[in-house]
Amino acid sequence: MSSIYLPRTADAVAFAMSTYGIPLLVLATTGSAALTGAAFALEWIPRLAAFGWAGSIVDRRGALVVFHLASLGRALVLAAGAVLLYLYPSGAMASVTVMVLAAATGVLTEFSYIATETAGAAAGRRAGPQAHRVQAVLLGIDQTATLAGPALAGVLLLTGPPSMLAVVTVFSLLAAMLALRTPPSPVAPEGRPGAGLVTGWRTIRALPALGWLVAGLTLSNLSIGLLQAAGPVIVVQHFGQSTTAVGLVWSAAAAATLVAVTICRFALDRLGLWPVGVACSAIASLACLAAELAPDYLSYLVMVAVLMAADGGLAVVLRTLRSRLIPPEAFGSTLSATILVLLLPFPVAGVLTALTPPDALGHVITACAALQTLGLFCAFARLRTDPALRT
């Protein structure tokens, strides 16, 4: 609890509050929708660019050192931003401050995330046959933070930007202090060159079970990304609901994922990885197909929640398999490579949404759902006899 779960909780809350709160902060400070979108991009583009670098440094220096320094650095950046916004609440200085905050926190958060995932995988390896229990708890922590963090950031923003940033600073400092309790993770030998994403990609290719599962989940993420990108169009224009109803869909999805992760934790004890993975794949595929055919908003919300709950079960399977198969000395680099591959469908989904007329979005979602079904079927059919998923 004190060495893995508490540090992860503090970092996850800081992660969620900064990721979702800083774009709100930009809008409140500048009043510009264009700058708000640019801030969101400034958070994510550096994160994607930092994946290989972060994984390589974690492999070389260990999770404890990187987690502590990244969380401490984020706290210092946020504290400086709070002071500047207190002194310059509007104008050019405020605009520059919030944009720099978006980019800096994005990079530092990526480093802390890779470090905490590496520490969680090390804890899973120490747990042996109970590794899935550790991964289920970690995923539950992430989902709870995703559910509570944005709401907390929004409420605190009503009291002023410096107040919101001060609270995120406190969580970052708490994460930095608790990081010192994190058990050391294995590091790469001194003579071994750190190749970042190259090392991670080679490791994935050398582990067919991991490669097949990542490929299947990548195709699944294309459907999920499309539902996220097209969600406002579907909910507001097609079902005639408010923009608040869009957020309600994903809040319900996060709550459903928490329930699913708890159920999967006990199901994995009795059934193993492969049966649970197959069941979650079937449910996810059917829910995605049903979401496009939903006759009203409520049924659409339920289908999206079921889809994300099943995806949460698949995430537990992936996390457990990663902790079992990836060599400890190359875990950071391989984790970075897998996350990067899994995230690539999301910008693709955004492009598809932008290029598709609203009336044709349903057909694109159906095509992606069919591709998702095919990808997951092929992945788990290939893994049916793999010993890595039979225990």
Describe this protein's structure.
This protein is mainly alpha-helical and 391 residues long. The chain has 14 helices and no strands. The protein starts with a helix and ends in a 9-residue tail after the last helix.
Number of strands: 0
Unreliable segments (pLDDT under 50, ≥5 consecutive)? Answer: none
Q: Report how far the terminal alpha carbons are from each other.
A: 25 Å
Helix content: over 70%
Structural class: mainly alpha
Query: Radius of gyration over alpha carbons?
Result: 21 Å
Helix-strand string? HHHHHHHHHHHHHH
Q: Could you tell me the mean pLDDT?
A: 80
Specify the overall morphology. globular
State the helix count.
14
Brief summary:
The protein is an all-alpha fold. It contains 14 helices and no strands. It is 84% helix and 0% strand.
Task: Kindly list the characteristics that best describe this protein.
391 residues; 84% helix; globular
Give the topology, please.
Layout: H1 5-30, H2 33-61, H3 63-87, H4 92-127, H5 131-157, H6 161-179, H7 197-206, H8 208-238, H9 243-271, H10 273-292, H11 297-325, H12 331-343, H13 345-355, H14 361-382
Helix pairs in contact: 1-2, 1-4, 1-5, 1-6, 2-3, 2-4, 2-12, 3-4, 3-6, 4-5, 4-11, 4-12, 5-6, 5-9, 5-11, 7-12, 8-11, 8-12, 8-13, 8-14, 9-10, 9-11, 10-11, 10-14
